[in-house]
Amino acid sequence: MENERFEIVGIGASAGGFEALQLFIKNLELKQDIAYIIAQHLDPKQPTMLVELLAKSTKIPITKVIDGEIPQKNHIYICPQNKNITLVDFRFRLTAPEVRIMPKPSVNIFFSSLAKDLENLAVGVILSGTGSDGAEGIKAIKNAGGITIAQEEKSAKYPSMPKSSIETGYVDAVLTPEQMAIEIPKIIKSPRILEEISDVPKNLDRIYDLLLMKVKIDFSDYKLSTIQRRIERRMSVTQTESLEEYVTVLEKSKKEIHLLHKDLLVIVTSFFRNKEAFEALEKVIANKLNTYSDTIRVWISGCATGEEAYTIAMLLHKLLKQKGIEKKIQIFATDISDEAIIKARAGTFIKEEIENIDNYYIKNYFVKKDEYYEISKQIRDMIIFSTHDIVKDPAFLKIDLISCRNLLIYFNNSLQKRIFSIFHHSLNSNGVLFLGKSESTSNLLHYFKNIDSKWKIFSKENTLSSPNITNMTYYPKRYPRNYLQKPMKEPINKNDKKSMIFDAINLSITKAFANDFLIVDRNNQIVFTNGEINKYIKIPVGNFNNDVFSFINDDIRIDLRAILSKAKRELVSSNQRVRTTLNGSSTLQYINILAFSLEENEVLDDAICIMFIESSDKIDTQNITVNKNSEHALYEMENELLLMKERLQTTNEELETTNEELQSTNEELQSSNEELQSTNEELQTSNEELQSSNEELTTVNDELEVRSLELRVSNTDLENTFNTLHFGVVILDKKLKIRKYTDDINKIFDIRISDIGETINSVQFYGKKENLKMLLLACLTEKKVYNFELICRNEIYNAVFEPYLNEQNNVDGLILSFYNISKLKENEQKLLKTTLELERHKHNLEEIVDIRTKKLEKSHSDIENLLNSVNNIIVVSKNGQELINANQKFYDFFKEYQSLDEFNERHDCICEFFEICDESDDFIYSEKVMKNNLNWVDFILSSKNKMFKAKIIKEEKTFIFDLKVTLMPDNDNLNYIIAMNDITLLHEYQTSLKLKVEAETKSRLEQEKFLIQQSKLASMGEMIGNIAHQWRQPLNSLSALNIGLSLKHQKGRIPFEEMTLFEKKSSIIIQRMSKTIDDFRNFFAPNKVSETFMLKEVIEEATQFIQPSYNINHIKLINHGSSNIKIKNHKNELIQVLLNLFNNAKDAIVEFNPNHGLVIINIIELEKHVQITVEDNGGGIKQEVIDRVFEPYFSTKFKDEGTGIGLYMSKMIIEESMQGELKLENCKEGVLATITLQNI
Predict the structure, then answer these.
(1) Active-site residue (options: 41, 261, 424, 860)
(2) Which residues form the Histidine kinase domain (predicted)?
């Protein structure tokens, strides 16, 4: 289905165009059935924000043009940089510019495509800019019947482009950008409906008279529908309400008359227009080639800008070449429009104008020059372009082919009949007439034979009664007498004299003479003919020349030259009787040639009338008798005549020689002119290149000004956001220098306004956190978020260190946030105190159980109070689905539910409230996470080192929660403790903060490559952070045990064995935590104390920690390390290394061998050393990277699963702290890790 077509406004702009476009778009109405397409000259190497910047001025959708897209109403489109835009079959086409220095996009190319594709639906607008791009495109739109508008020069920052378009004379209106936005929709959407023609003949007659007087064309025989449409168009542009009002405008404005004249002269053409028609014509011509003389003569009437003339020339040349026939081709291409003929003579066309031509023609008949294609010289030399009015100018004779396509459709029947008569007379016998597809043929069937009715190809019919061609010259049927009799408001311009001869001749002579005559000017150029003048003249061969001596018959040329010279010289009539043979006759007869100057008239200055009067005397050469006495005299006369002819021939040859010399001189002048023109083109090219660069810089500067304004607004927003925060925040750059901070940060750091730009390490830190610098460096280099507790001035804070990421997702600094959690810690201490009291009672079982039961009840109450006091939602879920317990915060959030039973009846899982969110992979319901087939709680548990978030929308408000899940086995059931920490405010702040800071730094800071500082201290800080984070899990386990114990207490009394097991597990966890903290405190001590311990105990302790994880992942652990070997070293650090090796083995098995995982531990005793080996079947390490596994930050795991420092830290502990050796190598099915230590 063909796309619905509607008006499209093409806008061309360059330097200063951004301001004009803003004003234009700002004033546009929101809903219009129009599309606006902007071709703004842009820097081809720089990205543009033109879409974003202009979108702020309107609610009309603004988008970049996409190749192949169909324009939509009420849309604004912007051509991307370094592309040329065209409209083909109502679709956008984007192409790469073929010439580097031309403006990009080319407005001329764009407007030409609009004219070709839309015709009268096209609107062209030229805004501010340097150069002249768009002027030719304005002409194309105007010639196609569209509307053209240019910006008022005073309102344009750079007026060159609008001025160039205005100077073409093809601009309908000159307006400011604001006026354009208001007037363009009015012009397009409010066409004037003229009154019935019968009611307004007077007004139409006045328009016809004005046109005839000013442009010398009588439009009264044009179809009324055509005249009406064009006048309505001009009335819309001039905003006149009635025809009478428009006539008044015409009378006052000579410019408007010429604009109406251009609108009435529809200039629309293309190469091979209706390709099938030219294929049919080619077949007809091919059959007639052998019947033509040595010269094939063609007349293209109404040739417009020349495409049809060049098409027929190429077609004929190809035919002759294919058939091997040598004939000369001579084509007369005529049109009434001077401007169209000028363009046709140039023979240059843009790529879009020739895109429908077969490659054969482009390859053989065009020469590419820059962005244009020029017709080849061999084709150009075949064609004579001339301004010619088919209605009143002499016709061409002895023509083999006449092409007059889509011209007659604008004429009424009477004028069509007259033109068909002229064509019939002009054609040779069996000559071909080629008409347009829409042309009516009812007026020519008596004189032409139908060859192809579909494509309107006809052959001349040699009828007995020829059409009425007694007077080949058409007299206009109307004369503007009323206007001619009025005194002229202006003196007659000399340039108008020649064009006004026609009127004066008709008024002065037509009534006085009935003989055949012609009128010549002072240069012997024929300006008027009357009667059967074709008996005395013939159409010359070669370049068209209107000189009378080129047309006159040879046998009277010399006599006419003498008569005409005498009439001019003596200003009296001159006549002579001459002997001649008239065209079309074989009889020799006498005629009188009379030449005289016309009556004195300022219009007919120096005009000569040449009249031909036939004599009734006939010379009968058949009946002449010669007696003997006169034979000698006749012989002498013949000899004298022969001599005179030889002399005349000599004179002619000398004259030809002189002409050849003059021609040679002319060619040399042309050559010099071409060289000068080439130099001028080079200078113009350089100027255009500089101009293009200047336009690009101007456009970039306009965009930078808008960006600066946006940056100032962003800075204000950022400052206001900072002032509303009620916790400590400090922003650092990648060199740890202070950028911004909130007032509450002074509780942590002693930062003053003068410290901005200084490093964070240069200000006083009130906290008790050791190795702060290493932690900051680790956060920078590893692009990881750190959470830890910090004590400052007797207050406990939750510190969050997270990387600040720029637009390219690279770390460009840090954001440090500190939240006061002192009250929460107090509740935790109460819980710990309650747990410790359980250890005091071990003697009397019944008493202990009774006392502990009471304590547990109190503990349960305290725990409930504690859980209800925290600002988190905490629930216990059975198998990750049904909820079996919840704290008060849950009911505060889900107010619509009075009990868990009511909640469970309506929902299978709390996760039903979680929204799908792809802001990042941190959300449990993001696209990446949802690809896993695990239950959501199991997925969180399997990602131990990753914190997940959930998004809940409730009562049209969005909440963000941190999720923490702890597994709590209960007989056959798997219960999960789900903690949901409300971080909505923090999330909103962090999101806003990142956006604001990113916008601030984007325009000021360039991306800098920075070296990752691979220092051991930073790595140690990373390890401490990881292990500290890891030891938070025992606390969670302890909380889980307490809650589990409480739940079991609700079901009945607790067995003594479980109480004992609970005590034992709690003690081990607490002792382990205490020992770990001591180890970390002494990690950097220079003289750490070694202790003696058994290796099997170390292995058993490490396996106890890893066993639950192995059970979940179905990994079998075989411990052969039962030897009673003792060593003296650092026990806790060895456990950390073993845990790291066990974790690495688990990760490898889960990835490569999840169903049959196996880990084997061995102890090997040597003479002075002892070895611990850990072997797995996890697939091994690729050979090309195995040598790099101990490098810092190198990891074989996925980006989110490994930090690359575990093995590096393990090797540093074994080899530097414990004076041993750690090796990794591939074995049969996996990796073999070997730890070698000194034996006692």
Answers:
(1) 41
(2) 1026-1240
CA 994 → CA 117, 351, 394, distances in Å? Answer: 48, 49, 81
> Which residue of the set 43, 117, 133, 263 is catalytic?
133
Q: Beta strands of 971-1086 (E only): which ranges?
A: 973-982
User: Between 711 and 750, where is the model more confident?
Assistant: 750
Q: Establish whether 14 is a catalytic residue.
A: yes
Specify the length of the chain in residues.
Answer: 1240
Report, as an integer, the average pLDDT of 622-636: 52
Q: How many helices (H) and strands (E) does the chain have?
A: 35, 41
User: Of residues 38 and 499, which shows the higher confidence score?
Assistant: 38
Q: What is the mean pLDDT of the chain?
A: 78
For 630-643, give the secondary structure using H, E and C. HHHHHHHHHHHHHH
Region of 568 on the Ramachandran plot (φ > 0 left; ψ -120 to 50 alpha; else beta): alpha
In the block, tokens 């299978």 appear at 908
Three-state DSSP state, 1023: helix
Round to whole Å and give the CA distance between 731 and 957: 29
Give, rounded to a whole angstrom, the gap between the first and last alpha carbons of the chain.
Answer: 93
Q: If pLDDT is split at 50, 70 and 90, which confidence band does 1 have?
A: very low
- C-alpha closest to that of 1227 among 1166, 1163, 1158: 1158
What value, to the nearest 5°, has the Cα angle with vertex 78 and ends 72 and 83? 115
Ordered DSSP codes for 1186-1218: GGGTTSTT--SS-TTT--S-HHHHHHHIIIIIS
Give mean pLDDT, residues 191-214: 66
pLDDT at residue 298, as a whole number: 95
Beta bridge partners of 798: 789, 819
Band the pLDDT of 1073: cuts 50, 70, 90: low
Query: Given a cut of 80, is residue 966 above it in pLDDT?
Result: yes
| Annotated catalytic residue within 14, 132, 160, 301 | 14
Going by the DSSP 8-state scheme, the letter that residue 409 receives in this structure is G
H-helix or E-strand spanning residue 1063: helix 1056-1081
443 secondary structure, DSSP code = T
